[in-house]
Amino acid sequence: MLVLAYLLKTSPEWQGSILRIKTIVDKREEKEEQFKQLNNFISTANMDAEIHVFIKDKQNPYDMIREKSSDANVVFVGMKTPQEDETSESYSDYYTLLQKAIDGLSTTVMVLASENLDFNNIFKL
C-alpha cells in the first residue's frame, strides 16, 4: 500500500497533496513501536508523510477507518491474502463483507496485504 500511495503522490495531479499513513494496532504497547517502524521507513525512503497510529478499541475497525479517513480523497485498505486451505467461496464471502464494511468511504483502493516485500529494493534504499 505504501508503494501505491508513494507512486500516486509522485504523479503531477497529486503533487502537493499530503500523504497520511494511518494504521491500527491492537494494544497500547504496540503503538510506539509501530510509529517508530513507519517513521524509520519514510525517513529512509525520503517520503514526505504524516504518521498516525491508532489503538483498536471496542469500535469495529472499519468504523474506525471510516471515521479517521473521512477527509481523505483516496483510502488504501489492506485485504488479507487467501489462506492455502481457504475455499474460493469462503474468500468470496470475506471479500463481500469487506466491500460492505468500506461502503461510504471516498475512493478506495483495496490492496492484497503482504508482509514479505523487500521495500529497500522497491525504493532503491
In short:
The chain is of the alpha/beta class. It has one domain (2-116).
Question: What is this structure's SSE topology?
Answer:
Blueprint: H1 2-10, E1 19-25, H2 28-44, E2 49-55, H3 61-68, E3 74-79, H4 88-101, E4 107-112, H5 119-122
Parallel strand pairs: 1-2, 3-4
What can you tell me about this protein's structure?
The protein is an alpha/beta fold and 125 residues long. The chain has one domain. It contains five helices and four strands. Strand 3, helix 4 (88-101) and strand 4 form a beta-alpha-beta unit. It is globular, with a radius of gyration of 16 Å. The model has no long low-confidence stretch (mean pLDDT 86).
Attribute tags:
125 residues; alpha/beta; two-stranded parallel sheet; two-stranded parallel ribbon; 5 helices; 4 strands; globular
- In helices, the fraction of residues equals 40-55%
**Order of strands in the sheet with the most strands?**
1-2
Reported for the largest beta sheet, the result is: 2 strands, parallel
**What integer is the average pLDDT?**
86
Please tally the helical runs, counting DSSP H or I stretches of 4 or more residues: 5
Number of strands: 4
Strand content: 15-25%
The chain-level structural class is: alpha/beta
- As a whole number of angstroms, the C-alpha radius of gyration is 16 Å
Report the principal-axis shape: globular
